[in-house]
Design goal:
By secondary structure, the chain is of the alpha/beta class. The protein has helices at about 5, 15-30, 40-50, 65-75, 90-100, 110-130, 150-165, 180-190, 210-215, 235, 255-265, 290-295, 300-310, 325-335, 345-355, 360-375, 385-390, 410-425, 430-440, 445-455, and strands at about 10, 30-35, 55, 80-85, 105, 170-175, 200-205, 240-245, 265-270, 275-280, 280-285, 310-315, 340-345, 380. The protein folds into four domains: about 5-130, Rossmann fold (3-Layer(aba) Sandwich), CATH 3.40.50.2300; about 140-315, 3-Layer(aba) Sandwich (Rossmann fold); about 330-405, Helicase, Ruva Protein, domain 3, CATH 1.10.8.60; about 410-455, Orthogonal Bundle (Arc Repressor Mutant, subunit A). The chain is about 45% helix and about 10% strand. It has a five-stranded parallel beta sheet with strand order 2-1-3-4-5, sandwiched between helices. A five-stranded parallel beta sheet has the order 7-8-11-6-12. The longest helix is centred in the first third of the chain and has 22 residues, at about 110-130. The radius of gyration is 30 Å and the shape is elongated. The two termini are about 60 Å apart.
């Protein structure tokens, strides 16, 4: 682990000998250490850069430790502050902790004590960072073996992903929305030598230009309106790990040049910063657009495209791998309850025949919905949403298959009626009068049916 990876520390101490002792001690532990002889100079360091931890004396000229502590918490809330003093009192310690100090140590102190406190503080910050990234952190859910697919196209992806994962090459994943691009990105990271490091993801379409740059590369306090403190960007947080840039085609062209620089030499500057920051990051990007068309339209840089598209992966839409639909349905049903429902042949056929413009994500949502609304253990075509049954049909919805074991016609009629009542309410945003008109019913008759089936 490099010094930069282990932690960046700042020591603010007016006594030169003490300052040097702490510097030598902590550099020996592998930290990158800066020093300042007084509070004002120490605060100027914090304004210019980001530190994991600051050790500050209490009694100092120009700005005392309590003033330094307050300012640091304003400029860089995530920075840990440890206070040391030769004039410690219980009241001062309590005040320091109220202001956000991690610890308050009286001089003279034991060298091993300082070493241990710093180590625990840095570990605590690392744990906090991991918790904040928990939703993005790779776990068993994203192991390649849990991505469902038996079709030839998916089997080819399963074959190449482990090989691609072992390299440091940038990967561009293309495919329609909901086709599983992010799952593949997680798998690439989880199967790589970077798997113990951070995997951070950002949707480039979710932020306006200024905020997107700040999210990616960080900013310094006062660099723009609302920049109240120094902030690390995702590229810095992901050092030695992976960054997933979803919807890369939506990145503004002005920001594309800055991303290109990172891909070319691994360096960038925070907004308002004056020093280059070097990182080792693998970039995985994804888009549902044709980037060549975006290039031709002048919306995407061609040189950036070639940097991102070192290794391309194309995710097939669900309609092109229909043999995977039964596997996916059973997988989603198995997660829906302790006792999964069984899907009947007529329902399975309708689901396989449907076009699934929303791909796997749409299928997952539909299965979750029908598993929740179907009272019986068996799901028939009558339990399916009307848009699935009626796609490409001008007549009545698909009939439930009449098998040798027969059907419960009364229950089937109930299921169909409930389904259309709910669908009408959905289409009218809960307006009962309009929903009744859609079904050709009087308001009174519609309300009676809602009461009969307990639909609220």
């Amino acid at each position: 682990m490099t010094k930069m990876q282990k932690g960046r520390l700042l020591i603010i101490e007016d006594e030169k000998s003490m300052r040097e002792v702490l510097r030598i001690l902590l550099e020996g532990e592998g930290y990158e250490v800066s020093t300042a002889p007084d509070g004002l100079e120490g605060l100027s360091f914090v304004e210019r850069d980001i530190f994991d931890l600051v050790i500050t004396d209490v009694k100092m000229p120009k700005a005392d430790g309590f003033e330094v502590l307050k300012k640091i918490k304003e400029m860089s809330p995530d920075t840990i502050v440890i206070m040391i003093t030769a004039f410690g009192t219980k009241d001062a310690a309590v005040e320091a902790m109220k202001l956000g100090a991690y610890d308050y140590i009286s001089k003279p102190f034991n060298i091993d004590e300082i070493r241990l406190i710093v180590r625990k503080a840095i570990e605590k910050k690392r744990e906090h960072l991991e918790l904040s990234l928990l939703r993005q952190k790779v776990d068993a859910t994203y192991a390649l073996g849990n991505i469902i697919g038996q079709s030839p196209k998916m089997q080819e992806i399963f074959r190449i992903v482990p090989r691609i994962a072992q390299s440091n090459s940038n990967v561009l994943i293309t495919g329609e929305s909901g086709s599983g691009k992010e799952l593949i990105a997680h798998a690439l990271h989880n199967l790589s030598h970077r798997k113990e490091k951070n995997f951070v993801t950002i949707n480039c379409a979710a932020f306006p230009e200024g905020l997107l740059e700040s999210e990616l590369f960080g900013h310094m306090k006062g660099s723009f309106t609302g920049a109240m403190y120094n902030k690390q960007g995702l590229f810095e947080i992901a050092d030695s790990g992976s960054v997933f840039l979803d919807e890369i085609a939506e990145m503004p062209t002005s920001l594309q040049a800055k991303l290109l620089r990172v891909l070319e030499n691994g360096t960038f500057r925070r907004i308002g910063g004056t020093t280059d920051i070097k990182v080792d990051v693998r970039v995985i990007s994804a888009t549902n657009k044709d980037l060549r068309e975006e290039i031709a339209a002048g919306r995407f840089r061609e040189d950036l495209y070639y940097r991102l598209n070192v290794v391309p992966i194309t995710m097939p839409p669900l309609r092109e791998r229909k043999e995977d639909i039964p596997l996916l349905i059973n997988h989603f049903l198995s997660r829906s309850s302790d006792k999964p429902k069984k899907i009947m042949p007529d329902a399975m056929k309708a689901l396989i025949d449907y076009s699934w413009k929303g791909n796997v994500r749409e299928l997952e949502n539909v299965i979750e919905r029908i598993a929740l609304l179907t009272e019986k253990d068996e799901i028939t075509a009558a339990n399916l949403p009307a848009e699935i049954l009626n796609e490409g049909r001008s007549g009545a919805p698909m009939m439930t298959e009449l098998t040798d074991s027969g059907i419960d016609l009364e229950q089937l009629i109930v299921d169909i009626e409930k389904r259309y009542l709910l669908k009408a309410l959905e289409k009218t945003a809960g307006n009962k009068t309009d929903a009744a008109k859609l079904l050709g019913l009087t308001f009174r008759s519609f309300r009676h049916r809602l009461q009969k089936y307990g639909i609220h």
